[in-house]
Amino acid sequence: MDPKMLFCLPEGDALFNPLNTMFIQMACILVFSQFFYLFLKPCGQAGPVAQILAGIVLSLLTIIRKVHEFFLQKDSASYYIFFSFLLRTGFMFLIGLEIDLDFMKRNLKNSIVITLGCLVSSGIIWLAFLWFIIHILPIKDDFLTLFLAFLVTLSNTASPVVIRSIIDWKLHTSEIGRLAISCGLFIEITNIFIYTIVISFISGTMTGDIFLYSFATGVLVLIIRFLASWLPKRNPKEKYLSKAETLVFFILILILALTIESSNLNSTVYVFFLGLMFPREGKTYRTLIQRLSYPVHEFVLPVYFGYIGFRFSVYSLTTRHYIVLGLTVALSLLGKLLGVLCACSFLKIPKKYWLFLSTILSVKGHIGLVLLDSNVMHKKWFTPIIHDMLVAALVITTLLSGVITSLLLRTQEKGFAHQKTSLEFFDTKEELRVLTCVYGVRHSRGSISLVSTLSGSSHVASSTPFTPYLMHLIPLPKKKKTELLYHELDEDAGNSNGGEDEFGTNEGLEINDSIDSFTKDRKILVRQVKLVAHMENMHEEICNATEDLRVSIVFLPFHKHQRIDGKTTNDGEVFRHMNRKVLKQAQCSIGIFVDRNITGFQQLHVSDSVQHVAALFFGGPDDREALSLCKWLTNNPQIHLTIIQFVADDTKIEKLVGDALTKENNEVFLEIVSKDQTEEETDRSFLEEFYNRFVTTGQVGFIEKRVSNGLQTLMILREIGEMYSLFVVGKHRGDCPMTSGMNDWEECPELGTVGDFLASSNMDVNASVLVVQRHRHSFDSFVDE
């Protein structure tokens, strides 16, 4: 075969055709961006800054004549525009899939107010300088289009740049990070809407198309939702959809996007809406996330950001254009700053976030470029020089905003760090983020039971924000030394290291089915994470995940499980050692769940039965943390919670005001007169607040047990062992006379004295046990046994 035909080379003197040069350009952008990111990452810079710089460097290299002829051929513009459309379609659909809908609904008011603040402030500022720019350029007609073009340039926010930067800074799970993402999307969609509507009325040809394509998008949403529920039923034993089935969704989306773009409309909002309305549960959703996330984040977005930088060109600008360029950049930053400050002041957002929001929302480059490339911008005043000036303004503003934001985060690192690492001072109206870890299906049932318990009932779940994560822990097998060649290995052994997706496939399928059943019943999305690591390093990965996901508590499975005959079996000491390491190093509270799913706690979402839960309170930080966790149990009508307080005999207790067990009292004070110690005062005030809030209103039962030593405590625990299906107790309580002597026969110190007794198979306790340890702050003097 002729080499020219093989490499798609044109006839004549041309070295390459535009399609080949485009792919070579993408390869150069990826290489340069990795090089820049290698040096900029230690300085806290996000990936988009490095990728835009890579595009700028490639653009500057076009000064060389040969490079210019190579990359900027006469037909290259159409290739670049079409390929950028494909990239834009892919990542906007993924953004719609990944967006946190629950957070957007809860913060809809905040997002709208900040969006309006940015638009109004930018519009007023640009209107004030419109006369100056008209005279300096000069421009004699079509002022409305000019105003819209500069308004979009000033007020626009490139949501892909915001999302990618937030992810690189590991703020995508924080409140402020998700608020920035929501505001970026609202600002971008509003800019598209304003421009499209105004231009459609001016031209008089687009109004019907807008309604037509909106109707077509609604129909396609219904088709996609039907396919998302029907396709998994074709192969129920497969973990993911086939590649052909996945391709069906992409073809439908591309057909709609191409049809819309052919009518000179922007398809970004329509594609984003398709992703936003996609069902958030089931095999189809997991397949699309799994197959889109890596290529989009690692290839599509870097190339797109590099393409933004590649458009940078200032060679043709004159002095007056440089003046307008400087004014445009300054006014863009000033407009966002004033708009965000006014909106945040009105919404009473903490001041430490004001400057961060204003700078991160100043990044440009997405809709701005789409606007400048659109056909409606072919006006008399829109010369190639003004085009280059506006593109340069977008690039410079984005670079400045990214650099300023990263420097701000470095100087205020503690202010943006995860601070909700324990539950004691949590309010149930705040979002509860939990991470539950499982090794297999057996653990997943108990973990889903916990999640179901904390989620409350279906009619109050929306008022109590709850974000559960389930992490599938897959121990990586050690490499075995063998003298056999690869083709001589057994088929199963040869494929044992065939990739991360092959580990835990059967277990993963059953776990997925359990989660889908829970999600369908409770309407709560359980976000899944898979962790494949050696057992020696797994605790580090879990601890890192708790920080990245910003969870307040992580649940770990106990290293023993209950057999069918009711007795327990040890799964391995390696799992126990992993739990102990997490207890020492995790930057949040930890719960070890002893699941007795045969005789103890059962899944709530599969039945209407009422589960009786007891929270044991002896005193100390861990018991307070355990009782704080129980606040979320009060929202679940299938849970009957009882607080059992153990009180030492030598402690003087004043009688409760009125009857302590009646539920008609509005205020009940529990005064404990004992040694003047801060810990005891904290226990007293905490228990008093909990009592007044939940016990007196009838939501929670309360029982007091007076004991003098550990033996009496054991007798009481044996008496109540059959009365409850779940015990919640703190791990450590220092030198407590009520548990003295109980550690003489201790088997698992990581559960504490009370938790170890309740988890022991030698005792007549059939209930499940949740042992809670509060996050050990730097000032806590705690020594783990």
From TrEMBL:
Belongs to the monovalent cation:proton antiporter 2 (CPA2) transporter (TC 2.A.37) family. CHX (TC 2.A.37.4) subfamily. The chain crosses the membrane at residues 20-40, 47-65, 77-99, 111-137, 143-167, 179-204, 210-228, 240-258, 292-310, 322-346, 353-372, 384-409. It comes from the Eukaryota. GO terms for biological process: potassium ion transport. Residues 613-775 form the Cation/H(+) antiporter C-terminal domain. Its main location: membrane. Residues 515-604 form the Cation/H(+) antiporter central domain. This is Cation/H(+) antiporter 1. Residues 35-409 form the Cation/H+ exchanger transmembrane domain. It holds the Pfam family CHX17_C. One of its GO terms (molecular function) is antiporter activity. It is a multi-pass membrane protein. One of its GO terms (cellular component) is membrane. It is found in: Membrane. Keywords: Antiport, Ion transport, Membrane, Potassium, Potassium transport, Transmembrane, Transmembrane helix, Transport. May operate as a cation/H(+) antiporter.
